[in-house]
């Protein structure tokens, strides 16, 4: 398999949001996450394999992992050129940013809507609450800290049936990410297929969202668009029990556990399309 340089490590199944389009609910897995010592060993193996230059910590919601700052530090010390975190933003604080500022290269925040009602429909609200959604004023302040500490800010947006007519450029231009990744809601069997009919958008609706928002976007923000056909099979991922997986066949396909069989043996058991990875702009660098 032609290797790609970025690996996405989904540390945890748990999430405080319930996004209907979620690509990684892991409802098909009943095992517990790796322990801290096992996570550190796994990160070390990945770094020493020399396959990867970037590690992206994801979830669930990765900020529910209290020792995430330690894992980011370990990844840098073990040799990853770039570290990244993708988060729904709800647990971000000034203190957390200070705890990772020396080791975190990229922070990706998911923003799907500026409307509380739309976020609630999507499922972007705290579990068990009456509708506490993302605090955009807080995110603006967090973005200012990121820029001050040279943490490269990204925004991820999933276009779905509830937000397809929105224009988000006012808030995107205000927080000034270097990349805005816009993804089409995509059906993944065993993850979001029960809700997919409610949140699906056509290719034309997705393209209209992208073109409308591109029209008003700052010239220095790189807009990356990912339709469904590019998403499937272009990501190399690791689940929270320590297995590589891919979605090339429209569902998660898992390898043996990396700590048991090693990086090289496990990676041969999944299939990732390196051409799609490059086509969606995945092979970018913020540091040499």
Give short descriptive properties of this protein.
10 strands, alpha/beta, 288 residues, 12 helices, ten-stranded mixed beta sheet
- Proportion of strand residues: 15-25%
Cα shape: globular
Biggest sheet strand line-up: 7-6-5-4-3-2-1-8-9-10
Number of strands: 10
Distance between the amino and carboxyl termini: 25 Å
How large is the radius of gyration?
A: 18 Å
Look at the structure and give the mean pLDDT. Answer: 94
Compressed to H and E, one letter per element, the order equals: EHEHEHEHHEHEHHEHEEEHHH
Largest sheet: 10 strands, mixed
DSSP summary: helix tally:
12
Helical residue percent band: 25-40%
What report would you give on this structure?
The protein is built from 12 helices and 10 strands. The chain has a 10-stranded mixed sheet with strand order 7-6-5-4-3-2-1-8-9-10. The longest helix has 13 residues, at 36-48. Helix 6 (169-175) links the parallel strand 5 and strand 6. The protein has 288 residues and is of the alpha/beta class.
